[in-house]
Amino acid sequence: MKSLFTSLSQTKALWVSFSLTLILTLIFGVVMYIGEFRIIDEMYSSEDIRRHIANMTPEQRSMHAWLTGTVDVIYPFTYGAFFIGIAMKYFGRFGFWLALPTLVLIMADLTEGFSQIMLLTGDERYMGLKTIATPTKLILYISELCVTVIGLVIALKDRFRNQS
């Protein structure tokens, strides 16, 4: 596992994972714009989710489910690879431990996606799963994003120090 994490810290791997994350983020925005809908990814209140889905057209629900089942399956792996790579590259011996929660984040995001597809296709039995998976994902995402931002600050600081 550690060798996989280390390979994600290579400069080329970081650029690839960063670029793919940006491209997928753009795809989300374009599809939501074309479909005229807002995704339920950040929603964790069952009432808000039910209301939002009820206000969507069948085409919007279908488009959202397809987006979640395709792009949103790849997305956690691309941003996850970037988060792991930055932690491994800029936090030394602590990098592995700071990167490890990203694995749980990826699982939480995929679980959330599964529950969303089920809800968007009319299966309410997965509401409880969604209301647990989403806050878990959001907490882990924010914490790993903070690690990544700090890692990038360290990278910039090192770069400026080496130029002096």
Total number of β-strand segments?
A: 0
Strand content: under 5%
Radius of gyration over all CA atoms, rounded: 18 Å
Mean pLDDT: 96
Summed up, the domain count is: 1
Unreliable stretches? none
* SS class: mainly alpha
Distance between the termini: 37 Å
Main sheet attributes: strand count, strand direction, barrel closure:
none
Q: What does this protein structure show overall?
A:
With 164 residues, this protein is mainly alpha-helical. It has one domain. 83% of the residues lie in helices and 0% in strands. The protein has helices at residues 2-8, 11-35, 46-55, 58-69, 71-90, 95-99, 101-120, 127-163. α2 runs antiparallel to α5 (71-90). The relative contact order is 0.13.
